[in-house]
Specification:
Elements lengths: L1 H25 L11 H8 L4 E4 L5 E7 L5 E7 L5 E6 L3 H4 L8 H8 L7 E4 L4 E9 L5 E9 L5 E8 L14
Antiparallel strand pairs: 1-2, 2-3, 3-4, 5-6, 6-7, 7-8
């Protein structure tokens, strides 16, 4: 009976260690700018959804996260292979960087990929809409929308609207 208890205790310890390590890497909180390397970023946060390699040898990695995709983190790695900074980008400061006249790649570099379930093409107006679900300052879910010209891929406009998919058409809180 003692060995049965020991096996359960070891299994619980392994599960706890895996759970804690998974949580530590969710937002890169275990990574340190100027110290952590690119392989450590990938080991901690997993494979990025998108990667951009710059002419100077630096890289930008996009990590969409969160329940229902309400967070995206950008990891910026210098030419020396060390993490320069890690930013959460689904917020009003970054949304303000997206302006009419930008192309799709420029928008992706600011916000990362939108959820495939929130990408829509409107043929009558030749408009491609990308939306990102995020948590507003009141801890409620909203969408940030970018409308592109369907032919050129250039931003026409941006906007925000509440997510009304909660019970009874109510805006869900970010804790749901």
């Amino acid at each position: 009976m003692d060995s049965h208890f020991s096996v359960r205790l070891r299994a619980l310890a392994v599960f706890t260690a895996l759970f804690v390590s998974a949580c530590a890497g969710y937002d890169g909180g275990n990574l340190k700018a100027g110290v952590s390397t690119l392989p450590e970023v990938v080991a901690s946060m997993g494979s990025p959804a998108m990667v951009w390699k710059n002419a100077d040898g630096s890289e930008q990695l996009a990590y969409p996260r969160g329940p229902a995709g309400t967070q995206t983190f950008m990891a910026y790695v210098g030419p020396d292979g060390k993490l320069q900074r890690l930013e959460e980008v689904l917020n009003t400061e970054h949304f303000a960087l997206v302006r009419a006249g930008m192309n799709k790649d420029e928008v992706l570099r600011v916000l990362g990929p939108s959820g495939s379930q929130w990408t829509e093409f409107y043929s009558r107006s030749n408009t491609l809409a990308w939306s990102w679900l995020f948590c507003n300052s009141w801890n409620s879910q909203e969408f940030f929308d970018v409308m592109f010209d369907g032919s050129t891929g250039i931003v026409r406009s941006t906007g925000q609207h509440p997510n009304l998919s909660g019970p009874g058409g109510v805006q869900p809180s970010c804790g749901q």
